[in-house]
Amino acid sequence: MKKIVLLTIIAGCLAACQNKIEEVPYTLANHYFVKNNVAKVDHPKIADEKTFHEVFGAAAVMGDGGNPTPIDFNKQYAVAIVLDETDVATAIEDISVHKNTGSGQVEVNYKVKTGEKQSFTTRPTAILIINKAHEGEVLLKEIK
Prior knowledge:
The protein is of the alpha+beta class. The protein is 17% helix and 45% strand.
C-alpha cells in the first residue's frame, strides 16, 4: 500500500514538473476597429492576414504613431479580445499571457473596467500580437 501511495505522489510530482507555466510577451496593436458586419469573433486566435482583415479595419490617425501597428503573420499571430457593443465607458485592462508547457495552451487573462454611461456606443477591443514561438490553443479568461 505504501508503494502505491509513494508511486502516486511521484507520478503527480512528475506531471506537475512537466506543466510549467511561462509568461508570454505580447504587444498591443493600436489603431484597428471591429468591422460593423462582424457580430461575434468565434475564435480569439487569428493566424493569417486575410482572416484578420475580415474582422478588423485600419483606423489610422494623424501625427506620430498614428499608423496601425504592423503584424507580420509569418512570425506572429493576433489574439482578439472583443466585447459586446456598449454605451458605458469600458476598458480592457491588466492583460497577462501565460503558456502551459504541458498542455500547450496559451491563456490570456484580462479585467474589464467600466465607467460612466456615454451618449454613444463603442465595441471595446484589445488586440495582442504574439510571436509564433509561443504557438498553442488560445483561451480567454476574464478575471473578476
